[in-house]
Design a protein that fits this description.
There is one protein chain. This protein has one domain. The two termini are 24 Å apart. The protein is mostly helical. It contains 8 helices and 3 strands. A 3-stranded antiparallel beta sheet has the order 1-2-3.
Length: 160
Amino acid sequence: MQQIKENLQKHLETHPHATEEDIVKFVFQGMLGVGHLVSSAEAVRKRLEDEMARNPADDTEPLTEELSSRWVRLNLRPAKAGGITPEELAQRVARSAQLPLNHTREDVIAFCLELDGFDREKMREAAERLRNESFLPSHSEQYRAEYKPAYVVLAREEMI
């Protein structure tokens, strides 16, 4: 858990416009990874093809961002610049999604509610949405406008 806190702090240093909503997403991905998004490797491949087509190759951005000891974000723009294909990524995502989870949504909520330095009420509202099992956290409009996130979450052992 300490590693998630440290990685979150690094993330906030480079993404100072992140909101409580974005913090919950970061922690959610750091604890629960990608399995919640994977219906099939084919569906993931199609989504990645579409997203990679919309994003220009850019080898000046970092390829990865650490979430936790188990999960990382792979940035699609430098991945595309490096010749990584949607097919290859989809296979890696599908394998990542098969891993057993060590945490629950309640763990994510508890972790977020104990974080210091944020608006407590906004954090509570953002985190408690996770009690609805069909809810998936997303980036805030502010975050999307400022940082244009384009990444996929992978298990560390699936990193390229």
